[in-house]
């Protein structure tokens, strides 16, 4: 059987063209059932439609705009495969209505994000950003010194994980042996065996918020999770607690977070994601010394990129063979 066409829709740049070459290699290793072709996402809609015609699947390149009405014009498409864990930028309900499921990256970036989340915990507790700046400026800890009595390690702390999926579970696994208590909240139920394996305890959301020393967010962005952390939650947190967000910016009510940090309702925050990205330079978070900020790069690792591409190539190859794809995301409307 000849390979089926799979369209990688992305911008005309070096990164995209490198990805096409790598996807072709990975698809060949996955059985040679998928023929990966590049479609320029920046051309007029008619050109994109022509490019994805005959394709059995689309690999959604970063920054591409692929509304359901466009994909509707290519009835051969059976899957939209994303490269990320979060899929809030994709019209899942619209695609579901035309019979096209959406798959995320199957946990390809889970390890990288989990490691970054733990780094943010330590960075906030130890003010590592200030330590780095002071050292580079030859100040040898001048700005950090006044906060010496505020520094903590993670031992004996209660870490609350919101969302025990592929990323949250890896945070829990990596905290094993750190001598801290790990609790979690999730809308899904997990077995006693799984909880025992991860050394975690389930807790109601309100209880987790109230008793955690560290709250780390690993939930998708959906209507039910937008502003999951807002004024009431910050008031309920310990004033010594810290918040870590490496999932999606709007899961946190940023204005409420700023007020909570200013008022001392919580000690600090470590953020990789924001309500508006790229972050605007007049964002009041920049003026707060108890915040560590990174530019939505928690996923960035060579291993993360490879695992994500490997999964995507295998998943579109399943569709090319007539098999069911994996890691399908529910068609939740934003």
Structure description:
The chain is of the alpha/beta class. It is 36% helix and 15% strand. It is built from 12 helices and 12 strands. The strands form 2 sheets. It has a 7-stranded parallel beta sheet, sandwiched between helices. Helix 11 links the parallel strand 10 (242-245) and strand 11. Helix 1 (14-29) crosses helix 12 and helix 5 (110-126) packs across helix 7 (166-175).
Topology:
Blueprint: E1 4-10, H1 14-29, E2 34-40, H2 45-52, E3 57-60, H3 68-71, E4 80-81, H4 92-97, E5 102-103, H5 110-126, H6 128-136, E6 158-162, H7 166-175, E7 181-185, H8 192-198, E8 201-202, H9 205-211, E9 214-217, H10 231-236, E10 242-245, H11 254-263, E11 268-271, E12 291-293, H12 302-320
Helix pairs in contact: 1-12, 5-7
Q: Can you summarize this structure?
A:
By secondary structure, this protein is α/β, with parallel strands linked by helices. It has twelve helices and twelve strands. The chain starts with a strand and ends in a 14-residue tail after the last helix.
Key traits:
single chain; five-stranded parallel beta sheet; 36% helix; alpha/beta; elongated; 334 residues; 15% strand
User: Number of DSSP helices?
Assistant: 12
SS-based class: alpha/beta
Radius of gyration: 22 Å
- Average pLDDT confidence is 95
Give the amount of beta strand, in percent.
5-15%
Helix % is 25-40%
How would you characterize the largest beta sheet?
A: 7 strands, parallel
- Uncertain spans: none
Compute the number of strand runs: 12
Query: What is the H/E string?
Result: EHEHEHEHEHHEHEHEHEHEHEEH
How far apart the termini lie comes to: 40 Å
Q: Indicate the overall shape.
A: elongated
Q: Record the strand order, biggest sheet.
A: 8-7-6-9-10-11-12
């Amino acid at each position: 059987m000849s390979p089926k066409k799979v369209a990688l829709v992305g911008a005309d740049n070096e990164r995209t063209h490198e990805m096409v070459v790598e996807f072709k290699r990975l698809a060949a290793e996955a059985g040679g059932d998928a023929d990966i072709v590049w479609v320029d996402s920046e051309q007029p809609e008619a050109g994109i439609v022509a490019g994805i015609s005959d394709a059995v699947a689309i690999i959604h390149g970063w920054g591409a705009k692929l509304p359901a009405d466009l994909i509707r014009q290519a009835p051969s498409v059976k899957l939209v495969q994303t490269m990320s864990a979060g899929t809030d930028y994709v019209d899942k309900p619209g695609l579901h209505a035309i019979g096209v499921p959406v798959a995320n990256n199957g946990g390809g970036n889970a390890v990288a994000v989990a490691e970054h989340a733990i780094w943010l915990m330590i960075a906030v507790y130890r003010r590592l950003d200030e330590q780095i700046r002071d050292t580079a400026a030859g100040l040898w800890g001048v700005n950090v010194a006044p906060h010496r009595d505020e520094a903590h390690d993670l031992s004996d702390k209660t870490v609350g994980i919101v969302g025990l999926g592929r990323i949250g579970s890896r945070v829990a696994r990596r905290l094993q042996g750190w001598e801290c208590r790990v609790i979690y909240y999730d809308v899904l139920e997990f077995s006693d065996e799984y909880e025992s394996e991860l050394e975690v305890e389930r807790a109601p959301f309100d209880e987790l918020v109230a008793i955690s020393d560290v709250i780390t967010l690993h939930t998708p962005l959906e209507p039910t999770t937008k502003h999951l952390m807002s004024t009431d939650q910050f008031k309920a947190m310990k004033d010594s607690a810290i918040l870590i967000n490496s999932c999606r910016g709007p899961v946190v009510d940023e204005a409420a977070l700023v007020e909570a940090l200013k008022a001392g309702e919580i000690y600090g925050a470590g953020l990789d994601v924001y309500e508006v990205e790229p972050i605007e330079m007049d964002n009041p978070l920049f003026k707060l010394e108890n915040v560590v900020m990174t530019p939505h790069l928690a996923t960035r690792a060579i291993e993360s990129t490879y695992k994500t591409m490997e999964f995507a190539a295998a998943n579109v190859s399943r569709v090319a063979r007539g098999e069911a794809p994996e890691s399908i995301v529910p068609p939740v409307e934003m």
